[in-house]
Specification:
Strand content: 15-25%
Number of strands: 5
Order of helices and strands: HHHEEEEHEH
CATH architecture: Orthogonal Bundle
CATH superfamily: Winged helix-like DNA-binding domain superfamily/Winged helix DNA-binding domain
CATH topology: Arc Repressor Mutant, subunit A
Low-confidence stretches: none
Number of domains: 1
Strand order of the largest sheet: 4-3-5
Structural class: alpha+beta
Largest sheet: 3 strands, mixed
Helix content: 25-40%
Number of helices: 5
Length: 137
């Protein structure tokens, strides 16, 4: 088994990630934040760490709609992020956990009627959150 190294860069990346629990972020955003904090780090190191954290299940990786960029979200352990869908607000970018009981009904319907297995990890439903709707009213 390979030894897991704890570096200052990795810890600073984790500190940023844990502060972003309901938000998505890009590698560039992590890099920009750490650079602003005077951290000596390069963008390749950020990408390498984020990809490793995604492989380990610490992060969820999403393909951004309308572009080829990859977005990440912290997979909060107590929310079991790998087993439910997420909703993302098109306006503010907030990520909302969709942990409703009816998800089991949807999964069963998809399998029974369409022979389709739902993969929740990385799946996002886009829309507008209630806070942004209130601002528009």
């Amino acid at each position: 088994m390979a030894k897991e190294y704890k570096t200052k860069s990795k810890q600073q990346i984790m500190d940023y990630i844990t502060a972003q629990q309901d938000k998505h972020f890009s590698a560039q955003q992590v890099y920009d934040y750490l650079s602003g904090e005077k951290t000596q780090i390069n963008l390749a190191t950020v990408y390498r760490n984020l990809d490793k954290l995604a492989e380990d299940g610490v992060l969820l990786r999403y393909k951004s709609m309308g572009s080829n960029s990859v977005m990440y979200q912290y997979a909060v352990e107590d929310k079991d992020c790998h087993n439910h869908l997420h909703m993302q607000c098109n306006r503010c970018g907030r990520i909302i956990h969709l942990e409703c009981e009816f998800m089991h009904e949807i999964e069963e319907h998809l399998m029974r009627e369409h022979d389709f297995s739902l993969v929740c990890e990385g799946s996002v439903i886009l829309g507008i959150c209630k806070e942004c709707k209130k601002k528009e009213a």
